[in-house]
Amino acid sequence: MSEYIQNLNPTQRDAAVNYQGASLIIAGAGSGKTRVLTCRIAYMLSQGVQAHTVLALTFTNKAAKEMRERIATLVPGGMSRSLWMGTFHSVFARILRAESDKLGYPSSFTIYDSADAKNLVKLAIKELNLSDETYKPNVVAARISKAKNNLVTPQAYEANSSLQAEDREQRIPQFLDIYKLYARKCRENGAMDFDDLLLNTNILMRDFPEVLTKYQNQFRYILVDEYQDTNFAQYVIIRRLGELHGNVCVVGDDAQSIYSFRGAKIENILRFQQDFPGAKLFKLEQNYRSTQTIVNAANCVIEKNQRQIRKKSFSAADEGDPIRVIKAYTDKEESALLASDIYTTVRTRGVQYSDVAVLYRTNAQSRALEEALRSRNIPYKIYGGMSFYQRKEIKDMLAYVRLVVNPRDDEALRRIINTPARGIGDVTIGRIAGAAAANGLSMWEAVSRLDPATIGLAGAAGNKVAQFAKMIGELSEMRSTTEAYTLGLEIATRSGLIGTYKMQQTPESISALENIEELLNSIRVYTEEQERMAADTATEGESAPQALVQIDEWLQNVALLTDMDNENPEERNKVTLMTVHSAKGLEFEYVYVAGLEENLFPSMMSMGTPEGLEEERRLFYVALTRAKRAAVLSFAESRFKWGEMTFGRPSRFLSEIDPQYLDLQFELGDSRDSDEEANSAPRYGRPGGPSRYGRPGTGSSQDYGQGGYRKRAGAPDTGALRRTDTPSPGARFRSLSARG
Ligand code: ATP
Ligand code: MG
User: ipTM of the assembly?
Assistant: First the structure.
């Protein structure tokens, strides 16, 4: 038996080698779920299972990449290359491209990221002459997303009177009109948003039985990591694809389900054994990641949740240090204390900066932390923050490529028709849009085909537009004959982007140029990878080698990168800053969790309902269980929000940890320690209100309001900001020194 199988414990081993039939692996954090999945795939390949019949779905592209690399080290060369491994979105985008004609989409359809989608929602709201005060683009976009993830198309929505009643109740009666217009625009632009990738896959499998059969036959083995966070649309896809052969293996932990605001359902796990009768259940109980203290502390917290599958989790590692709690008077001081603690840890504990992570509930918290780290010269990187792909010059360049690949993409055209500036103003763009709508054409088609006079474009404006349209047309034609990198360079040059930035000679323009260069490099890297893979699979006799890697292919790949995949390979030996949400599945030697205050973590918007609060608690469980060797928790007694000093109490989660696992040099005071408040007085929003659909970590008001904090406006200095009220007599904490 291979070494990697032998290194597993008996239950893990059973779960890895019994790969026929359905399996449910359910276990707490750090128990080796992902490791078992990896070993199982490697084992299957070693038993002669063909790689291209294996479909493995992960939560991020990064996780897929790591798994693939690991498997490659376990099985003979090249064997793992044709595994279908990736996120739901990337795998099903690939299938949709192959089958796009059936749904009436071009195979080169554009994928809109959440920023694109929001812009389109705004446009739809505007076109319908609705107010974006009443129809908040964020809320509308989230509601569209929710509908799609529940497989509710605009038509289905129209037929559903209770959904429409809900809209009226939420005072957005015309939501359906926006949804319809949005969907129409996507289709006209030849574009799908992220949720469409799942919705349309479902439509494809529902309406084209032969397509369903084809993929059911191809994917003989289906594996899913982080199953607790699948939403309904993803769940239905797995059930459909797996029902023929039943070789479906899912791993998950109900205690780590943290995406219910995006429609994820814990019930999917609970239902698995009904969906796949006879499914084997594996429970892993040993945590291999963390010290006993961390595992026990995390168990204390998660026990407080009512809704959960009870399971054991223990660590056989060292007991480890107690979890330190750091108190600060202000958020600024909190950051400074963390930075100095990190500095000391790295100096005295023989660890690297890259072994350290600082986790927080909302992105907005990173700013203070960044400042503190910078002032101590501690290198850091922000994971999942403003991604490379969100930078202006990159979005511009990508919009050019998108338009070249799919000239129907009006959103792309709007973005770059006058970038760099070529004297095409809003009035002209409005006329083009009008003419396009009147003639049932895309904007590019309108300017390429219609007589400028009929569009109302006189002389100079007409010429500029015609030149632009011609350039796009020519670049578009080059696609089939020009290799991706060369075409990319051509686009960057002919668009004028490179020239403009070169001319500017400012620090920003120089870094913009570097970024464009980096993007072009990524095309080259991608091309080389594809060529290597094509050569490999050719020797396995699966498909013919590709002659030319087109820019279309690269673009499809890029469009699927999510914020969480954003990681620069040079970023070694740096402290990682990230939201708790994006830390899922990862591990670090030292983990700091900042901002443990009521109304921040748990977040204010979640506290109105018991469900919301339980989700926050799971989120805290995820945070704590990322730590291998030590965890440090911190909170600030006051924090700037919306330019005002607000006061907070320590998070109830601190009081939920048995004090024997804490190193607490002070009394915690009146931290809330029960869910009763949430149960009896839903002060913030209703169950199912907007808070549950907001994105975490955006730092928006949804995460980060000020109600609930006790404000003391006009407080003169930090000294005066100290809380004067004495800790309640019932405070459950005694500092370690007091105890011993
Ligand atoms: P999470 O719920 O956080 O995703 P997980 O259950 O997927 O966690 P893994 O990430 O697979 O857990 O494993 C946690 C750590 O324990 C990893 O570093 C892994 O390599 C290690 N590990 C797992 N099983 C074993 C084992 N049998 N022997 C030694 N180390 C192990
Ligand atoms: Mg895992």
Answer: 0.99
Atom of ligand 1 nearest to the CA of 288: 16
Which residue has a Cα nearest atom 8 of ligand 1? 30
Tell me, in angstroms, the distance from the centre of ligand 2 to residue 661's CA.
25
- What span, in angstroms and rounded, lies between the C-alpha atoms of 243 and 219? 11
What length is written for the chain? 740
Query: Could you give the 3-state DSSP secondary structure of residue 206?
Result: helix
Average pLDDT rounded to a whole number, residues 217-240: 95
User: CA neighbours within 13 Å on the CB side: how many for 235?
Assistant: 21
Q: Whose CA is nearest to atom 14 of ligand 1?
A: 30
pLDDT digits (tens, 9 = 90+) for 623-672: 999 999 999 999 999 987 766 678 889 999 999 999 999 999 888 865 44
Query: Minimum-distance ligand to the CA of 32?
Result: 1
Task: Give yes or no for residue 692 having a pLDDT over 50.
Answer: no
Dist CA 432 CA 455 (whole Å)? 6
Annotated binding site for ATP: 27-34
Cβ(332)–Cβ(368) below 8 Å: yes
- Look up 482 and say whether it is catalytic: no
Calculated CA dihedral for residues 201, 204, 205, 207, nearest 10 degrees: 150
Could you tell me which of 561, 555, 253, 551 has the C-alpha nearest to residue 384?
A: 561
Residue 227 and residue 139: Cα distance in Å, rounded?
Answer: 26
Annotated catalytic residue 556: no
Q: Tens digits of per-residue pLDDT, 7-66?
A: 999 999 999 999 999 999 999 999 999 999 999 999 999 999 999 999 999 988 888 988
Which atom of ligand 1 is closest in space to residue 626's alpha carbon?
3
Report the atom number in ligand 1 closest to the C-alpha of 36: 11
Nearest residue (CA) to ligand 1, atom 9: 32
Nearest to 211 by CA among 95, 89, 107, 57: 95
Q: Is 256 a catalytic residue?
A: yes
The tens digit of pLDDT for each residue in 355-398 reads: 999 999 987 788 789 889 988 999 988 886 555 677 789 899 99
CA of 293 to the centre of ligand 1 (A): 17
- Confirm whether 33 is a catalytic residue: yes
Q: Which atom of ligand 1 is nearest to the CA of 38?
A: 11
Ligand 1 pocket (Cβ < 6 Å) reads 7-9, 12, 27, 29-35, 253, 256, 288-289, 585, 587
Peptide bond into 420 cis (omega under 30): yes
- Residue 377 bridge partners (DSSP): none
Provide the pLDDT for residue 722: 31
253 alpha carbon, closest ligand = 1
Distance CA 6, CA 386 (A): 42
Buried b (16+ CB within 10 A) or exposed e, 284-319: bebbbbbbbbbbbbbbbbbebbeebeebebebebee
Give me the mean pLDDT over the 416-435 stretch. 92
DSSP 3-state assignment of 651?
coil
682 pLDDT above the threshold of 50 = no
pLDDT at 203 over 70: yes
Question: CB–CB of 393/497 below 8 Å?
Answer: yes
The answer to whether 240 touches 201, Cβ cutoff 8 Å, is no
Evaluate if pTM is beyond 0.90.
Answer: no
Q: Report whether pLDDT(544) > 70.
A: no
66 CA to centre of ligand 2 in angstroms:
12
Question: Is 214 designated active site?
Answer: no
Q: Could you please report the per-residue DSSP string of 680-712?
A: H---SS-TTSGGGGSPTTS-STTT---TTSEE-
573-590: average pLDDT: 93
For residue 262, what pLDDT is reported? 75
Do 167 and 175 touch, CB atoms closer than 8 A? yes
